[in-house]
Amino acid sequence: xxxxxxxxxxxxxxxxxxxxLVLLAIAITFTIGWRPFIGPKSRPLTxxxxxxxxxxxxxxxxxxxxxxxxxxxx
Length: 74
Description:
By secondary structure, this protein is mostly helical.
């Protein structure tokens, strides 16, 4: 027969473990999120092709230089 203090210790350790699991779940939710653990969202691939017209190239140049600042790092 288990001693009463042993049962109480097991119960307290169980509650501590459960509390740690809850804190870990909250920490993951508010920091990195669950996406690294469950993987990326999947979406169907398409075969769309866009023609490289001068307007599109000028728009891309504008976005990378003026708006997004890609040239600064890349």
